[in-house]
Structures are given as C-alpha cells and as structure tokens.
Amino acid sequence: MSANDSTVKRQPVLLTVKSVQDLGPRYRRICFTSPELAHYPPCSHGAHIKIMLAHGDQSEPVLPAMTESGPKWASAEDKPLLRTFSVRALRREVGEIDIDFALHGDIGPASRFALAARPGDKLGISPPGGPFPMLKPASQYFLAGDLTALPAIAAMLEDMPADSRGYVALQVPDHTDLQDLVCPEGVKIEWFFGQPNQVQPLIDQFCLQLENDKHHVTDSYFWLGGEEQIVVGLRRYIRRELDVDRSQVYAIPYWRFGNDEDSYHARRHEVIDNKE
Ligand SMILES: Cc1cc2nc3c(=O)[nH]c(=O)nc-3n(C[C@H](O)[C@H](O)[C@H](O)COP(=O)(O)OP(=O)(O)OC[C@H]3O[C@@H](n4cnc5c(N)ncnc54)[C@H](O)[C@@H]3O)c2cc1C
C-alpha cells in the first residue's frame, strides 16, 4: 500500500495496550493494537508521533476532531496531555504498533503511563511526522543519542542497507541498559555510561571519530537526538569545525533536563532554528 492510497487516514488513532515488555531497567516496549492501524499512514520506523494521554478522571484520552486548521477539542478540559515519541515498529497488517519508553520515574505523564501500563489501557497517537526518509542517502552515517533516541536509532539501524558504513554513539545510565542492536557490519556502535549532564566523553569520542574520518565528512549524514547537551554539543562541532552543510544534519533536542515537554517547547524551537 502506498502513501497515496485513498484508504490511508491522517487521523489520530485510539490504541489499546496489548503487551508490555521490559528491555532493561529503564526501557519498556509497549505493543499497542487497533484495527484502525490498517489505515494508518505508512511511515519510516523511527518517525515521530504525538502520544495523547488521559488525565484527571478520564479513563481514556479524548481524541480531537480534525479540521482544516488542525486538531480541535470540544473544550479545553478535554485536551489530552501530549508528548512526543517515536514509532519503534509498525505492523499495519496485524494492527500493531510498538513504542519504546525510557522510564524516568513517575514525574512525567508519559513515563508514568509506561510504568503503570497494563493490557487494556488506552492511549491516542497522531499521524506520523518526518523526516521521510529518516536518513538521507550518504556514504557514511554518524548517529548519536541517549535512551530517548534509542528507539529511533535502533529502528534506523535495522532499516539501513546491509552495506552501510558508519558510527553510532549511545549514552545510557549504566551497563544494565545495554541492548543488542541489529545493524550492518560496517556500522560501529559505541556505548557511553553516565547521567544526562555527563555527556563530554561521548562528545569527545564522537569528534575524535570524525577527525579520523574527515575525508568522508562531505558525503556523510549526521543524525543527533536526545538530551539537549548531546545534540547542541555535537551539532556545534559538526557545523562550525567541520563546516558540514545543514542539509546533511538532523539535530533535534528530544528533551532538556529540568524541563517538561510543555515548558521546553519554545526553547526547543530556538535551539532547532539556531543556524550554528
Ligand atoms: C522527535 C522526538 C521523539 C522522541 N521519541 C521518544 C521515544 O521514542 N521514547 C522516549 O522515551 N522518549 C522519546 N522522546 C523524548 C520524550 O518526548 C521526552 O523525554 C518527554 O519529556 C517525556 O515525557 P514525560 O511525560 O515522561 O516527562 P515530562 O513531563 O516531559 O518531564 C518531566 C520531568 O522529567 C524530565 N525528563 C523527561 N524525559 C526524561 C528522561 N528520558 N530521562 C530523565 N528525565 C527526563 C524532564 O526534564 C522533566 O524534569 C522523543 C522526543 C522527541 C522530540
């Protein structure tokens, strides 16, 4: 089925938790199901979505009506809590979608939902966003991120052509968070351990790797996600020191330590729009 298929609906979908699987102490895969997923837009694995979470006394989130000017709720109180996540895997043929949640306690509604999730629980999702494709064709790939970017990175690695070459730097809290990732032989994965504010070893090693591969930089593609410090630190080096064109760099801060997603919204856009 193609993206132009007339049966594809660009509407939010109400999902039901089918199963919950712990992939580590701080990482939980939730498989959701809905017959509506048969008509969900085809998308790259790793694409971003908004999840819609119930609040207060609601037993399930209220989905919006889709209007020409965007989603609309009958009243402001109906509006669910919104958070941004990634499509880890989509199986439209069986009406299933996997979303991987980094668990960071019950201080945020998304993490709280994931910690308590049981089969039968409900959550809404928006249609998928870009980029499409997730990675532009390139001779080498350089990817970096933390637990929140791991779902997108793992999905992109699985979908890479078998002869791809590249380097991936991943920061997780400690060795219990390590995962076996499926990836092409020519892609090296390096893990770093530390809290979100301890990113300098990852940044130094990533830059060293680029220094050694400098002759490939002009036809490489860079993908950076995760806590703001990783994304901004690496983007600065790639853009300023290596003079890589913006079109070759995806750099999206996924979250910022100390800010919830709502309070981070405006700053995130300033960071993204910064041309450095
Ligand atoms: C394009 C995109 C794709 C994303 N994909 C995923 C994904 O697939 N899986 C995923 O887990 N996250 C993903 N994220 C990150 C996720 O949106 C944020 O971590 C979000 O803040 C989580 O919402 P929450 O309700 O749990 O916490 P919030 O209510 O937003 O925040 C509450 C508090 O927790 C802190 N916090 C938020 N996230 C973390 C964290 N990971 N570790 C420690 N403290 C944290 C905040 O700084 C704040 O102090 C993605 C973000 C973007 C922009």
TrEMBL record:
Look up the domain of life of the source: Bacteria
PROSITE patterns reported in the protein's UniProt record: FAD_FR
Protein name (database record):
Vibriobactin utilization protein ViuB
User: Which Pfam families does the record match to this protein?
Assistant: FAD_binding_9, SIP
**Gene3D superfamilies tied to this protein:** Nucleotide-binding domain of ferredoxin-NADP reductase (FNR) module, Translation factors
GO molecular function annotation: oxidoreductase activity
Q: Which residues form the FAD-binding FR-type domain?
A: 10-135
The family database entries (PANTHER family) matched by this protein are listed as: FERRIC REDUCTASE, NADPH-DEPENDENT, NADPH-DEPENDENT FERRIC-CHELATE REDUCTASE
Task: Give the record's family classification.
Answer: Belongs to the SIP oxidoreductase family.
Residues annotated as coiled-coil are: none
Give the matching CDD domains: siderophore_interacting
